[in-house]
Amino acid sequence: PPPAQAPPIPTHKTATDARGRPLATPAVRGLIKSHGLDISALVGTGRDGRVTKEDVLLHVASPPGGAREPPRAAPQEPAAGERVEPVRGYMRTMIKTMQAQAQIPHMGLSDEYEVDEAVGLRAALLPAAQREGVKLSHMPLIVKALSIALLDHPEVNARLSADQSSVVYPSHHNVGIAIETERGLVVPNIKGVEGLTLVEIAKEMERLVALAREQKLGGDDLKGGTVTVSNIGAIGGTYASPILMPNESVIIALGAIAKLPRYDEGGNLVPRMVMKVSYSADHRLLQGSVLARFSNRVKELLQDPRLMLVHMR
Question: Which DSSP string do the residues of 205-250 spell out, in sequence order?
Fold first, then answer.
């Protein structure tokens, strides 16, 4: 017997009005316009060949000839009375960095730490720090706690190689500190935190802040970071969604330390010094469970800073 004939492939003919324009409802035409499409390029599959919403969305998802670049808004010229300033310095660098980092799949985690003991320890150490010529804030304690937690979780200190074929584990903890300046945000890093004392961390922070405010940071200060801390609480706020720095897998944003009511183990309402924290991590490299365990270790160290003594130099 003769071979069976393949059934004809159904075709659709887009309906047009008296002037030859494809038929579509005003809502569909608005959707077409929002995607920057030419209605004549669409195939209508609706009643009587009309272009439907589904036709538009299908075209956007699978455009003929491959992926289509999304429409870009036309540049807006400054209006009369608007001040225009050139982008330069740290701001220009940060704009490029953040645009690149936004392509990385971020994973977030937020928590709150009761830091009464850390606050008390810092107050007790103030006189000794002053004798060393340094003003001790809470940041050196937090930076040191992060470094100790990294000893238990080295994968958090790691990064993907440039070709994403391997994982690189740095031998040092270089903790970046986000610093606000008149020319934008800059993130130098404290090198080798795992081998520094609290006073040494505080002195290095003071050096970096002074150079950043004077626009005099050197290239070495800005390179080689492995994790970053952003202290938004110094200005105000609780939680944040920080963006990763290049070649890093974790960034932590610190909220303000505030006295808040909390229940103790006996069910009694008591005042506690609470710091809210927000982590962002490279989800290509780290799972949520890994980030949660790392955060729990940092919390443990800050809630009982005596545990940090065995790692102090």
Answer: HHHHHHHHHTT---HHHHS---EEEE-GGGTS-S---PPPPTT-SE
Extract long-range pairs of 134-137: CB within 8 Å, 24+ residues apart. Answer: 134/199, 134/202, 134/203, 134/206, 135/202, 135/206, 136/198, 136/199, 136/202, 137/202, 137/205
Strand-pair partners of 164: none
Helix axes 139-152, 116-131, angle to 10 degrees: 110
Beta-bridge mates of residue 180: 185
120 vs 53, 98, 124, 234, 272, CA distance in Å?
Answer: 62, 37, 6, 18, 12
Is residue 9 exposed (0-12), middle (13-18) or buried (19+ Cβ within 10 Å)? exposed
How far apart are the C-alpha atoms of 300 and 289, rounded to whole Å?
16
pTM here is 0.72
Strands (E), 48-133: 106-114
pLDDT on residue 10: 46
**Beta carbons of 112 and 278 less than 8 angstroms apart:** no
| 37 within 8 A of 44, measured Cβ to Cβ | no
Q: The tokens of 155 are what? A: 């994968």
* 84-143 residue pLDDT tens: 888 877 888 878 887 778 788 999 999 999 999 999 999 999 999 999 999 999 999 999
